[in-house]
Amino acid sequence: MNGLMIIPNLICLLWLSNDIAQECFEFEEKVVAHEKVGEEVDYQTSES
Hints:
By secondary structure, the protein is mostly helical.
């Protein structure tokens, strides 16, 4: 019965995959921009 829980998890994972990828690319761009100018990146705070 627990094996059936993979179905809703896979559906959510596929549904959110584009959003997750977009967030990762945006975060990566911010980190690279800070690293290029030699700034230290604080991963704990989120800037909007």
